[in-house]
Amino acid sequence: MPSPYLVILAQQEADEGLSATTAVGWTVFGLIIIAFVVAVVLNTLRGRKEVGAELELAANRKPYLSDEELEGKKLDRTLGVGLVTLGIIGVTLPLYWLGEPGRQEEAVVVFDESFVRRGTALYVEACADCHGPAAVGGVAETPLLNDRGEFVELVAWQSPALDTVLYRYSREEVFEILQWGRPQSPMPAWGELGGGPWTDQQLWNVIDYLESIQLPASEVRDQVAAELERTCDAGDDGVCAPGMEYETEGEALFNMGLTGGFAGGAFSCGRCHTNGWSWGDPGLPGGGFLGPSLRGGSVIRQFPSVQSQIDFIAEGAQRGQPYGVGGTAFDGTMPGYGINPNAADDGSRMSEDQVMYTDEQIRAVVEYERSL
Ligand code: HEC
Ligand code: HEC
Fold this sequence. Notes:
Shape: elongated
Distance between the termini: 40 Å
Strand content: 5-15%
Low-confidence stretches: 1-15
Radius of gyration: 34 Å
CATH class of the largest domain: Mainly Alpha
CATH topology of the largest domain: Cytochrome Bc1 Complex, Chain D, domain 2
CATH architecture of the largest domain: Orthogonal Bundle
Strand order of the largest sheet: 1-2
Number of strands: 4
Structural class: mainly alpha
Number of helices: 13
Bound molecules: heme C
CATH superfamily of the largest domain: Cytochrome c-like domain
Helix content: 40-55%
């Protein structure tokens, strides 16, 4: 269910169809038409009276003012009017110029707001069912098929929270995901190129909406810390307290949200690197699914030094770029956990401290992966 707040926003958008500006526009248009008709009628009437009169005195032949009159009061008045007009221009032009930057900024804000408002309506309509109201994460009811395409069972596939999606992906990467959807998952294609129903403009509107609801960094830190405490409660050595769900903090991070559905699994690695993770039936941890297998020493071969692997996890993969010893990122699906890719953009609402994991958390998950 979309939240009432979002529904209200969506409704406002619809109500604004006939805006005040449009009404004023039509009124002015009407007045112009009326004035035009009146002018034509008056002109025609006046014309009729003069039929035949031009034989005695053509209209332009009435006697005009004398030189004295022309060069006296008349000239003074004309010059006076000119001076006053110049004065008005001289004062108002700088005033207008002074106000212009403010007007432009205001226009950008209004633009931004209307994009966000449109994006909100689109989100409620198309995404909220799976990703949850206000993008806090949810589940997608998905029919699971076997290799031969036969129905096996209906599963609840975790859909990641998107109120942190610009922590881990750049706006352009999110655009690509929306354009093409995510093959082998319930995430459909929305863009025209991927066979979806939306224009590029609509995709950007939804991204603007998502940008407007990204959580503050401190809130994310607190949420993740609370979830880690619930499943691991590690000491300084990164080993979980006895009787906890996981053995190490790295393992808890890797699987964050597997039980309890925290943020729709948005913070986990398992949703892409462990088969069955997303629908609560995980196979071998790190055995590979949308992302490659991380088992049997493969990450140690790919990243001989711990630091190079930490750097990769922090930045994520970039479409078509090489990484590690012999890796090439296919489409940049692997998110970045320690560097916000949007913070550097001028005009972005995102800041550098809005990242998925702290440095210690990245180190913990890297250690866990190297033990697989
Ligand atoms: C039928 C359910 C469904 C709908 C509808 C849906 N999504 Fe998704 N989406 C998913 C699932 C499931 C995933 C995660 C797939 C995976 O990697 O396991 C996902 C992944 C994503 C991702 C990648 C996030 C990440 O961290 O991997 C983005 C961005 C996204 N969706 C945005 C949207 C937007 C915006 C809409 C609406 C236009 C939308 N989705 C509609 C189910 C859905
Ligand atoms: C949304 C899916 C997704 C998530 C979530 C994800 N990965 Fe990945 N990962 C990938 C993909 C796909 C690749 C392959 C590179 C590419 O095409 O982007 C990859 C590559 C890797 C590699 C390189 C493996 C190799 O041998 O080449 C490592 C290591 C890795 N991921 C670790 C992690 C860790 C740690 C996390 C969690 C903090 C994580 N991944 C979360 C999709 C994901």
